[in-house]
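Objective 1.3, modelling of assemblies. Example input:
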Amino acid sequence: MDMVVEILSWILLLGGAAFLLIGAIGVLRFPDFYTRLHAVSVCDTLGAGLVLIGLMLQGGFSLVTVKLLLIFYFMMFSGPTAVHALAHAALRSKLKPLVDDHESR
Amino acid sequence: MFIAVAAVILIAIALGLVRACRGPTLFDRIMAANMIGTLTVLMVAVLGFMAGRPEFLDIALVYVLISFVSTIAVLRVYISRKRATGTGVS
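Predicted structure (tokens):
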């Protein structure tokens, strides 16, 4: 049983790290602010969630898990809210999204 | 194995830093700062587990709240200044 929890926690930790890395590469390589925002918001939320759940499995039933649960809770609230505020502010200040006008194709 | 996760998070922070330096608009830089804040929280949590000292989680907990508030505050300062001066995105 311990072995199963250990393996599951490492799978979650490494999967979360992979999502974080993919999000960072997307931030570096996407062509436009809104696409970059999409990469960072989705991948960061998922990757952070997976890493925190993996750490919870490492911690076991203790105060550590409660603290990790609180971090998870605040992160699930604050991450998407901050990204939404960012996109809203960018759109309000007339930053145009990159669109593919089909005449140039 | 925690070292692998910490190394990946450090690489992601480095990539975000490149975007923060290069970013053509101010929003790119704020976005990169937000991302680096999230990654720093995870880094602190993983480092606490790596060192066997779970007290680090308190720092991570505070950092989550501060990074959210700082993102919103920077956006609000920027928008109110833009209303006052009327300059565009730069």
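Chain A touches chain B through 46 residues (CB under 8 Å).
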